[in-house]
Amino acid sequence: DGHTVHVRPGVSQLAVLTACVDLPDGDFLVVLTDRPERDLGDAVLTRAAGRTVERPDDWDAVAGMTGARDVDAALRRHGRWAATALLDHRPEAGWPAVATDVLMADEALGWLLARLLRQPVPTEWDAVRLVEVLNTLPARSAWAATDEQLRRHLTRWAADALGSQARLALLAAQTTAVSVVALGLALDVLWSTDGTAEPDQLIARGKIETTFGGIALSPAQVRALATDARDITLRMDDANDPDLPSVLAQAERVLADVRWPAGARQSDILPAGLTARLEHLAGRITAHLNGTVRIDEVEQALGLVLGHRFAHREDREVTAARMATRLVRWLALPGVHDVPADLGSSLERQVTDGGWVDRAVAAIWTGSQHGAVAAAYRRLADRVVEIRDRRGEAHGGPGPFVPEFDERPPAVQEIQKVARPRLV
To answer: What are the contacts of 379-382 at 24+ separation with CB within 8 A?
Structure first.
């Protein structure tokens, strides 16, 4: 109300008395002191409002900042650290106003966590949201820079309020620059749902525990974080998030760092897992061509390829896998190896299946960037082309089959187009 308030330290009785004497008329004085009343004596207390030393309550201050009349008992039980942190990290615009007269524990500590992770206040927290936030480097950097004691307290609260995976996410974020989602994807294969484990896998589990502060990881905790990481990854894919390739690559590097890179090949999300499935399909195709594997085993291998969660991201590879499997089926059809009796029958056969067979061969001719897969496809294509060529040559058709799309040098392609014209 236009009055001046002087704030002075009261390190002793004499210091307080001096401040009182020096106070200009009409002004007010606040003395901050750590001295008990007996040290200050009546000479000071008779000059004090209420003749006593007021003991400020941090919780009262916190409640006042949020418009609450009181603080939830559960929040008080967390200890003085919570009140101090809420006072120290108060946003410039202040904490939000509470909807009720009481400031609740999860509400206040959720605000505090959001403030420390540079998120809007308030933020609605659950475990998935926390992992998503910690997937960003700024949030991880801010968390790593937070006071160690405060991190420990908030990690304990998050584990109780959000789930055990929240604890793992916060522990990882303070010790590593790696994406927390990537760590979750690595855990997904390290602790697979089938409960089995290879010797190298068990060793890798021990190595990755250092990322989480050296704590022993339980299967329940791990699976919870892995499940959240998978869900977030699929959402990133739906949103065409440009960070997704980096997250997937980091997960594979984590498995390499813990000396179990083979684990990435067992994943149904990581790129190495799709490569492994394509190579398995190629092996089944080769074995079928050798007469040691039935068609249904090739079909099952294709099912594994299509079952990879990110198979759709490799359209060319998956299209080639589908076409290769169709050609395997075609080779097993009755009469495929028979040469038509006349030109009319040959033309009918071309209309019936020759066109799509040509297309399928073109798809697999250069349909894979993986050497083992490409070799299997080429062998399959050679088998099919041999049959197609016999059909065409029997009735004056075109010479040896030339795929419409291949990787031969352009000059060679032009020469062969002239030398080997195709019927359309």
So the answer is: 379/285, 379/286, 379/289, 380/285, 380/289, 380/324, 380/327, 380/328, 381/327
CB atoms within 10 A of CB 233: 25
The residues, any chain, with a CB within 8 Å of residue 2's CB and separated by 6 or more, are none
Provide the angle, in degrees to the nearest 10, between the axes of the packed helices 164-173 and 127-134.
10
For the question of whether the overall pTM of this predicted structure is more than 0.85, the answer is no
Q: Is 103 helix (H, G, I), strand (E, B) or coil?
A: strand
Distance, CA of 286 to CA of 281 (rounded, Å): 9
Q: What is the CA radius of gyration of the chain?
A: 36
Check whether 392 has a pLDDT greater than 70.
Answer: no
Contact (Cβ atoms closer than 8 angstroms) between residue 252 and residue 261:
yes
Whether the CB-CB separation of 168 and 212 falls below 8 Å is answered with yes
**Nearest in space to 349 (alpha carbons), one of 364, 368, 334:** 334
DSSP state string for 156-206: HHHHHHH-HHHHHHHHHHTT--S-HHHHHHHHHHHT-TT----HHHHHHHH
pLDDT digits (tens, 9 = 90+) for 88-136: 999 999 999 998 899 999 999 999 999 999 999 999 999 999 999 999 9
CA–CA gap between residue 246 and residue 235 (Å, rounded):
15
